Every structure is written in C-alpha cells, then in structure tokens.
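Fig. S4 source data, part A: sequence.
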Amino acid sequence: MQKKKKTKTSPLSRFPNVRRSESDMREIIGEISSGAIAIRAACLKYGLCRNTLKLWMTRLSIRTLKDSNKVAISSSMEDDRNAQDYKSQIQQLSKSLEYAKLKILGLETMIRVTEEDLHIKIRKKPGTKQSKE
C-alpha cells in the first residue's frame, strides 16, 4: 500500500472563509497565467478550491474585457469629436482665406484704378530703398 503524503497547509488555508483582496486575486492569477505555477499547485499553495480559482479567473477576464471595451468606445467617441472639431476649424479657416483673397483683390483694384485714372504711382519699383525719416 502506498501512503498518501500529507501536504502542509499554508497560513492562508487555515482561514478558508477569509475574503482575499483583488490584488491578491490578481497576483495568484498572474502566477498561473505566466506559467510559474499550475492551477492545482496554486490551489494547494494558497488553500483555495479549484472552482473558486476558476471563478476568479473568469471574473477578472470579464473585467479586463469590459475595461478594454470602454477604452475602445471612449477613444472612438473622442476621435469622432476631434474629427468634427477639425471639420469646423477647416471651414472657418477656408472662410477666412476667402475673405482675405477678396480683400486683396479689392485693394489691388483700388490701386490699379487710382494709378490709371489719377496718374499717381502708388506701387514702388522693385529694389528701391525706403527713405529715412
């Protein structure tokens, strides 16, 4: 007959009804997911039931999915807002550019009419120096 080895219980398993914090849960599941320890070994080490451990894993995976969905949705909403802001800014800048072009055209027309009708030279010749006053 083979004798069963007695496993030494960990201090945490002495109080099986004690609730563990979420950081403890994440730490234990992190060890399992990294491959440092198997599920069965984690149950023995931390004094947990396998079903409890799997329930924790499910809960934490659902939470991470919810968090990633929130981030994706909020980032897409921010992208939509940014796109709308950019569109309105582009429209405003195009209107300002159109107004500036019309103003320049009006001023050039005034200068041309003044030079032709009144024979006053307003435009300077290229390369002339400014007078010192």
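Fig. S4 source data, part B ends here. Helices lie at 22-34, 39-46, 50-118.
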